[in-house]
Design brief:
It contains 1 helix and 11 strands; from the N terminus they run E-E-E-E-E-E-H-E-E-E-E-E. The chain has about 140 residues and is mainly β. The chain has one domain: Distorted Sandwich (Deoxyuridine 5'-Triphosphate Nucleotidohydrolase, Chain A), CATH 2.70.40.10.
């Protein structure tokens, strides 16, 4: 378990796990707005967090919103341990109707993950694998 320091602004809600054992803590809107069809909007959460070095926070879409045509414009967002600004979530409305975001509404979930820094080493050759350069669909369409 890691400890995350959090600073709230304007009566924002602290992220919370809905059930024991959940991997993602719900993140809430700190503002009201309407997202029109095919519109993208950056929605404030009113929170800032301090993530320990060696970890990241991933902001993921909520499945309940996806069923209504609302998703994240960048799929999974990464918050680095050095970031101290307000967390904002880029939402997009894929439906054909305007969607109202109310203050306090769940708009994402935050998952913490351990990360490793990579050291890049230039090489003239890479080892061979059974896949090699086969790209998308390399295992077939079934």
């Amino acid at each position: 378990m890691i400890k995350i320091k959090i600073k709230k602004e304007n009566g924002a809600k602290v992220p919370a796990y809905a059930h024991k054992g959940d991997s993602g803590a719900d993140v809430y809107a700190a503002e009201e707005c309407v997202i029109n069809p095919m519109e993208r909007r950056l929605v404030a959460t009113g929170i800032r967090i301090a993530i320990p070095h060696g970890y990241e926070a991933q902001i993921r879409p909520k499945s309940g919103l996806a069923l209504q045509g609302i998703s994240h414009a960048n799929s999974v967002g990464t918050i680095d341990s050095s970031y101290r600004g307000e967390i904002k979530i880029p939402l997009i409305n894929f439906s054909d109707k305007p969607y109202k975001i109310e203050k306090g509404k769940k708009i994402g979930q935050m998952v913490f993950a351990k990360v490793e820094e990579a050291v890049f080493e230039e090489a003239n050759e890479l080892d061979s694998t059974t896949r090699n350069e086969q790209g998308f669909g390399s295992t077939g369409l079934d």
